[in-house]
Automatic annotation (TrEMBL):
This is DNA topoisomerase. Keywords: DNA-binding, Isomerase, Magnesium, Metal-binding, Repeat, Topoisomerase, Zinc, Zinc-finger. The keyword DNA-binding applies. InterPro entries: Topo_IA, Topo_IA_2, Topo_IA_AS, Topo_IA_cen, Topo_IA_cen_sub1, Topo_IA_cen_sub2, Topo_IA_cen_sub3, Topo_IA_core_domain. Introduces a single-strand break via transesterification at a target site in duplex DNA. Releases the supercoiling and torsional tension of DNA introduced during the DNA replication and transcription by transiently cleaving and rejoining one strand of the DNA duplex. The scissile phosphodiester is attacked by the catalytic tyrosine of the enzyme, resulting in the formation of a DNA-(5'-phosphotyrosyl)-enzyme intermediate and the expulsion of a 3'-OH DNA strand. Residues 787-826 form the GRF-type domain. Its cofactor is Mg(2+). Its EC number is 5.6.2.1. Belongs to the type IA topoisomerase family. Residues 755-785 are annotated as: Disordered. Residues 174-605 form the Topo IA-type catalytic domain. It is an enzyme of class 5 (isomerase).
Length: 870
DNA sequence: GCAAGGTC
């Protein structure tokens, strides 16, 4: 490139802080003519100006920023309203990317600046999202100026040398990275919107969800990140519920000497068999001299933590201060905005070699509390310094979280600001410190052939523990023992204990689960957790531990019963690996989109047809509401065709609370086009079949026989009305259709007989149970044992339904008790896994566990004696 | 009114 007239280049960063920092670095040279700042259209995104030379070519640089994504993905207007279409259509519905209202000012700045420039240099974060935002910027800028020469700067830290290097070695943006994000956005939108609309419309009005006064507006959302997060909470909850305490026995030995007390632990741990433990104990008591068989002395190191990533910050703030991850991020954002800490959303847990760590320590020397520690760190004589070891994660965009400005506390800071800044500083100082050193002693003894062991620790040098007050290193001293030494134990006891269930998941546990499974990003994980609370899916106790609410449990149960693992992290993991394939170029964007959406659509259609499972699981916890008598059908809204009256919205098939069908315009109340189907119609479906005798748009009115039957007889002998859809023809006069609406006594919706209304259908009364159990057409079996739930006789029967023919199940004979359980869900000893009883039967106990009254002859004895520890 | 991902 030769010199000559300067080229005007527009530089764009992902956020204002990066635009400022990079401009600052690039304009340090005197030849830059200094750094000038002016306002853009957006009050947050300033424009920096300076001169710069790239390979001998003079440039006039303008440097501005966006604030994250410039565009959003949404459905076309006609699909935006919830009742505008059947949610299944959202798998094909047209989507568009657009710049939302609150970003229009940034868009205008970009357009205005792009028109004045020849080059566009993209300084977005160097990750997939950043690359996608880069292409959003490109789209806006090239709309304003088609001749732009487009470049990408690759940088991983805001360090002078690195920034200059990337400016001198510009590359082209990577379309594949951006494609991967396009795929994710589209899949997330379609899955999220379809399932959310489906389950909200299906369940919200059907049950009394009494946890909010305003349950009409509650949203039962589904998302590929929030649901697996809920899944972790529910799974642990079920694990706890299904835990049965088991008694075990262990032998303990202590020895008091002049130097102190030593506690020896039995090397076998514990035994579940009392007799066995008691025999061994007797042996020990009878021959109770202890002989020291081994004495080991070792130096042990306790290493300081890795440099701080977002997840670690959230986990530690939760553990040390009980701050929620969401609040932590808010406080961290404040500290970052005010310049006290570095960018708080980072996966990186290792410092770049080029980072000047000592300078950062120097800044902390004046602090009244940890200043002296910082001074010791910098003193070569003290030998406290150690180059930090990394945890192996690097997002190539941001350094680990570290202090960027000294503070001994600011006026406007809350307690939490103080705590979090202190955590960041102490963590940083710990990272560059030597590990703590301890001397550990282990003593093994033998009593009557049984081995016991005791250990003690002495801290030789605290090192990083001096500054990292949040961590300690437990351990106690033990007296001195020598090999071959013999002594009489002071106490030798046979003690019993019981196994305990695992604890509920803490916020730190939940973050670890999400991190491991790849759910969410460092910037969004706390949002997913908060969403569980906002949606009433889970609660958090004062100990920061999460339990599912009944709603959360019911939803997970429902999908689990369908056989879907939509609540597990596998779907997201699969998507993530596909995204990776797209970004590497091994799979195409369209290929992944098509396959994934096809699978998810099939899953959605299946879930819809299995919605009974969701109803059943909800019914375990919630009462049915009377807001709608035929709730599930009432909410179904299948699109028939475009409204011929307003030409704007769709005509959809719906069922009203009174059970009658209607085909109405979704533009209501603006458009009042409606066709009421006669009350005798008990089922109506939208089909693609076109009536042979008239134009598309017919709703069966041309069929004389049908019309006569429904209007005159009203007996419903042809009670399925097919509504032709997808046509453009005219709608039959709604007034005539309304006249034909026979609101009188029609066929019962349940048994399809006349003579009674559906509300009092005798089949419904007995059906309440039948729909829940598989025993329809089952044959009575022979054996009878007491019901686990009520104690009445429980009968072994054989299912005769299509899906479970031949499968055996126990079912309670009592009319009041709905207990039933598949025989193959009963394990050894009559143990029933959690959920296998309750998910399909309304067993009031709702818990698994031991079947009380399970006959002796069915129990197989298990050997739980451990004899292999030696 | 719905997702998840950026960011103020």
């Amino acid at each position: 490139m030769a010199g000559g007239r300067p080229i005007r280049a527009l530089n764009v960063a992902e956020k204002p802080s990066v635009a400022k920092a990079v401009s600052g670095i690039l304009s340090k040279n005197p030849s830059s003519g200094g750094l000038r700042v002016r306002d853009g259209r957006s009050r947050y995104n300033k424009i920096f100006e300076f001169n710069y030379t790239i390979q001998n070519q003079q440039f006039q640089m303008s440097f501005t920023s966006v604030t994250g994504h410039l565009m959003e993905l949404e459905f076309e207007e006609r699909y935006r309203k919830w009742h505008s279409c059947d949610p299944v259509q959202l798998y094909q519905a047209a989507v568009k990317k657009y710049v939302p209202e609150d970003k229009l000012d940034i868009k205008r700045t970009l357009e205005e600046e792009a028109r004045k420039c020849q080059w566009l240099i993209l300084w977005l974060d160097c990750d997939r999202e950043g690359e996608n935002i880069a292409f959003e910027v490109v789209e806006v800028c090239t709309q304003a100026n088609r001749n732009l020469n487009i470049w990408r700067a690759r940088f991983s830290a805001l360090i002078d040398r690195e920034i200059h290097y990337s400016m001198q070695h510009l590359v082209r943006p990577n379309q594949l990275f951006a494609d991967a994000v396009d795929v994710r956005q589209e899949i997330d939108l379609r899955i999220g919107a379809s399932f959310t609309r489906f389950q909200t419309m299906l369940l919200r009005d059907a049950f009394n969800l009494d946890f909010t006064s305003d349950d009409k507006n509650i949203i039962l959302s589904y998302g590929p990140c929030q649901f697996p997060t809920l899944g972790f909470v529910v799974e642990r909850f079920w694990e706890i519920q299904s835990h049965e305490p088991e008694e075990f026995w262990t032998i303990n030995c202590t020895h008091n000497s002049e130097e102190g007390i030593a506690t020896f632990n039995w090397m076998r741990g514990h035994l579940f068999d009392y007799t066995c433990a008691a025999i061994i104990y007797e042996m020990c008591v009878q021959e109770s001299t202890a002989t020291v068989t081994r004495v080991r002395q070792q130096e042990k190191l306790k290493y300081p933590p890795h440099p701080l990533s977002t997840i670690e910050l959230e986990k530690r703030a939760s553990r040390y201060f009980r701050m929620s991850s969401e609040h932590t991020m808010k406080v961290a954002e404040d500290l970052y905005q005010a310049g006290f800490i570095s960018y708080p959303r980072t996966e990186t847990d290792c410092f770049s070699e080029r980072t000047d760590l000592r300078m950062m320590v120097q800044e902390q020397q004046g602090h009244p509390v940890w200043g002296s520690y910082a001074q010791r760190l910098l003193d070569p004589e003290a030998g406290l310094w150690r180059n930090p070891s990394g945890g192996g994660h690097d997002d190539k965009a941001h350094p680990p979280i570290h202090p960027t400005k000294f503070s001994a506390g600011e006026n406007g800071w809350s307690q939490d600001h103080h705590k979090l800044y202190e955590l960041v500083v102490r963590h940083f100082l710990a990272c560059v410190s030597q590990p703590a050193v301890g001397a550990e002693t282990t003593v093994d003894i033998d009593i009557a052939g049984e081995l016991f062991s005791a250990s003690g620790r002495m801290i030789m040098a605290k090192n990083y523990l001096d500054v990292y007050r949040f961590e300690s290193w437990g351990g106690s001293m033990i007296p001195t023992y020598n090999f071959g030494q013999q002594f009489a134990p002071t106490t030798l006891t046979l003690d019993s204990g019981v196994t305990r269930p695992p604890p509920l998941l803490s916020e730190a546990d939940l973050l670890s689960c999400m991190d491991k499974a790849g759910i969410g990003t460092d910037a969004t994980m706390h949002d997913h957790i908060k969403k569980l609370l906002d949606r009433f899916y889970a609660t958090k106790d004062s100990n920061t531990r999460f339990s599912p609410t009944e709603l959360g449990e019911a939803l997970v149960m429902g999908y689990d019963d369908m056989g879907y693992e939509l609540w597990k992290p596998y779907l997201r993991a699969m998507m993530e690996s596909d995204m990776k394939a797209v970004s590497m170029g091994t799979k195409s964007k369209t290929e992944v989109l098509e396959t994934c959406l096809q699978q998810m659509k099939a899953c959605f259609v299946d879930a819809k047809s299995n919605k009974g499972k969701l109803f059943e699981s909800m019914a375990v916890f919630f009462e049915r509401s009377n807001r709608s008598s035929i709730n599930e059908q009432n909410t179904v809204a299948e699109v028939v065709r475009r409204c011929s009256l307003c030409q704007e919205s769709d005509m959809v098939l719906r069922r009203k609370p009174d059970g009658n069908f209607m085909v109405g315009c979704t533009g209501f109340p603006h458009c009042k086009n409606v066709v009421w189907l006669p009350g005798s119609v008990s089922e109506a479906v939208v089909t693609t079949n076109i009536c042979s005798s008239c134009a598309p748009g017919c709703i069966g009115g041309c069929d004389d026989i049908l019309r006569q039957l429904v209007e005159i007889c009203g007996t419903g002998s042809r009670n399925i009305s097919s509504v032709h859809g997808r046509g453009t023809g005219h709608t039959p006069s709604s007034s005539s259709a309304q006249r034909s609406n026979s609101r009188g006594q029609g066929a019962c919706l349940y048994c399809r007989q006349t003579g009674h209304s559906s509300d009092v259908c005798p089949s419904r009364v007995s059906r309440g149970r039948n729909v829940r159990s598989p025993e329809a057409d089952a044959q009575e079996g022979e054996s009878s044992i007491p019901c686990s739930s009520c104690g009445a006789p429980c009968v072994l029967r054989t299912a005769n339904t299509a899906s479970n023919r031949g499968r055996k199940f126990y079912s309670c004979r009592s009319q009041e008790c709905n207990f039933f359980v598949w025989e193959d869900n009963i394990n050894e000893g009559g143990r029933v896994a959690r959920g296998n009883i309750s998910r399909t039967a309304s067993n009031p106990s709702r818990s698994g566990g031991l079947w009380q009254g399970w006959p002796e002859w069915k129990t197989s004895k298990r050997c739980r004696i451990c004899v292999c520890n030696r």
